[in-house]
Design a protein that fits this description.
two-stranded antiparallel sheet; binds manganese (III) ion; alpha+beta; 41% helix; 13% strand; globular; single chain
Length: 270
Amino acid sequence: MGAGRIIPTEPTKARLASGEVVNRRTFFSRASMFGAGLLGTTKTPAGFWITAGDTISTSNSKMEEKPVAFTVPPLTYPFDALEPYIDAKTMEIHHDKHHGAYVTNLNKALEGHADLQSKSIDDILKGLDSVPENIRSAVRNNGGGHWNHSLFWTLMKKGGGGEPKGDLGSAINSTFGSFSAFQEKFSAAGVGRFGSGWAWLIVKDGKLVIDSTPNQDTPYMLGGKAVLGLDVWEHAYYLKYQNVRPEYIKQWWNVVDWDKAAELYAAAKK
Ligand code: MN3
């Protein structure tokens, strides 16, 4: 799976500088103590980020083998990187609290389901029908929230915006007529999504399609692969834009990372 593999999903363990190995659940509980301290981190071979100077100690050096838990991937930019279009406070609460809650609740729902815990979030969501009925809604909502947000953070950057180039730029022009026509249609999908949800540009049956999903439903439920996604839940914009979702969407174009979208497009076309 190309486009969707955005999360360290394998049952990996993090090896700290000290050589100590911790599982994802332990690492997450430790890492969450650092809150905003996602900067000044180093990436471990397993794909985890360890805060510089972090001294993790455990009471016993031999970790018990347990199913691993999902974690919130750290932002690769500071909370204020997207100012003035998306404010630092919104980014902090959105990433740490909202995304954090989806992950916490996903892990809670999966407790006692070792078969699901060992799967990637992509595979869990693609096989939602085979998830036991008593946890299916929780997995759909919280697993979807985890997947959607993990992607969303990577689709924005400081100094983003402009227009896509290359294959994606050409495909947008040929599909929608022009970049501005595309922008208009995508924005309308976000504005028009009643309640909470997401606007999407996806590849479906080899073609670019604009659509939206309610709640935390993912592009998998549209039968497509994501190229661009926009969170239009109020929590994504209320502090700065209050109820004015169209203004949030208008300003959001200034932070879109078109290089990332192009990468997803290329993977989705394969
Ligand atoms: Mn959100």
